[in-house]
Design goal:
Blueprint (H helix, E strand, L loop, with lengths): L1 H6 L3 E8 L2 E9 L14 E3 L4 H15 L8 H5 L15 H5 L11 H9 L4 H13 L14 H15 L3 H13 L5 E2 L12 E2 L5 E2 L8 H4 L1 E4 H11 L9 H4 L2 H5 L13 E5 L3 E8 L5 E7 L4 E7 L4 H19 L19 E3 L5 E3 L1
Antiparallel strand pairs: 1-2, 1-11, 3-7, 4-7, 5-6, 8-9, 9-10, 10-11, 12-13
Helix pairs in contact: 2-7, 2-8, 5-6, 6-7
């Protein structure tokens, strides 16, 4: 793929998805700069903030179960676990958190962040400590104001744990990923699950294996092959829901519904209007060592995905260019990406310019 070489990134995966699943996929480049192993279509890629759509979907599962409501408040769900919740947080709802309108800040308190990075017990325990500290302070923003926040998704994760009776990671696997047939997922660097996976790369091309702390897993630490990600995307395009996700499928309209005022975000998604797709959904993700982006056009019945093991502006541009190419090719009725055999090689949260549109946050 020309975009990978032009922007000098290690590897790039590009896929087209319909509601029936993966339509085509291509991959180009290497797992680690300076090493010969070619990247494969089956390699795990870090999804960064595209994790948020998965968390919102898990919320939809539990809403459909009747275990929580979109309007359930932090006070109603978490007061038993966290008895010292500041008054300013109590009325914020699950939907507020998923729409980035709860009062949670864009950046955590430095001491909380350092503690979260140092935490080496279970992710759920680390998350509870992180959220408890946050909820005992006055919110930094007014409820209702849009402020993009990983911290808000950590709170939402704790709410889902409280009503779901298990750790967020386990709930996501059993209630969302397994029903979709996703089995090669994990949290943290892909090499933590499979040492042969690609490594992420810093802005200067250094291979790295770092990630965000486990406390914010509901916001930004999921990884899986792009072909597995496609199964989740097909569900959001309106594909036939598997057993266990029938209730969540009925909540897709709410997940995709634009908010009442700018930036009119959905739940786990950013909404937009594009000539090529009508009302579309998008999101990008990066932990500064990886980058990915998704564009969904439910009205047209297709989506494009791109992912790379490189962070920064060059990675962002490569993904955006590749998605634009695939969108134009598919709308023109030609093969949008060259298919790649799954077993053979082929060709910190930030912002991303969108294909033929405005900038979006991720």
């Amino acid at each position: 793929m020309k975009s990978r070489a032009r922007h000098e990134i290690p590897a790039l995966v590009l896929a087209v998805v319909t509601k029936n699943g993966l339509e085509s996929i291509a991959v180009d480049g290497v797992r680690v700069l300076g090493q010969p192993e070619a990247a494969l279509a089956t390699d795990r890629m870090h999804l960064g903030s595209c994790t948020k759509a998965f968390t919102a979907t898990l919320a939809a599962v539990l809403v459909a179960d009747g275990k929580i409501g979109w309007n359930s408040t932090i006070d109603e769900v978490l007061s038993k676990s966290f008895p010292n919740i500041n008054e300013g947080w109590k009325s914020a709802t699950l939907e507020d958190l998923l729409r980035h309108r709860s009062g949670a800040s864009s950046f955590p308190v430095a001491t909380d962040w350092a503690t979260a990075f140092a935490c080496n017990v279970s992710p759920s325990v680390c998350r509870n400590a992180f959220v408890q500290s946050m909820l005992e302070r006055v919110p930094t923003q007014k409820r209702g104001k849009h402020v993009y926040s990983n911290q808000g998704y950590a709170i939402a994760g704790c709410m889902l744990e409280a009503v779901g009776g298990a750790a967020y990671e386990e709930l996501l696997r059993t209630r969302v990923l397994t029903p979709l047939g996703i089995s090669h997922e994990g949290f943290g660097p892909p090499t933590s699950a499979d040492p042969a996976s690609p490594k992420g790369h810093s802005l200067d091309g250094m291979a790295l294996d770092g990630d965000n702390p486990t406390a914010i897993a509901p916001a930004a630490t999921l990884h899986m092959p792009v072909g597995e990600w496609a199964k989740f995307i097909a569900f959001h395009l309106g594909g036939t829901p598997p057993v266990g996700l029938e209730g969540a499928a009925k909540e897709l309209e709410n997940l995709h519904k634009a908010g009442p005022d700018a930036p009119k975000e959905g739940l786990g998604w950013i909404t937009a209007r594009r000539d090529w797709g009508g009302d579309v959904l998008t999101h990008s993700g990066s932990n500064t060592q990886w980058y990915c982006t998704a564009w969904l056009a439910p009205e047209r019945g297709f989506a494009v995905l791109a992912a790379t093991n490189q962070g920064g502006e060059r990675a962002q541009r490569a993904c955006d260019e590749s998605c634009s190419f695939a969108i134009k090719a598919r709308n023109a009725g030609v093969a949008s990406v060259a298919p790649a055999a799954p077993s053979a090689p082929s060709d910190a949260t930030g912002s991303s310019p969108t294909p033929s549109g405005n900038s979006t946050s991720n």
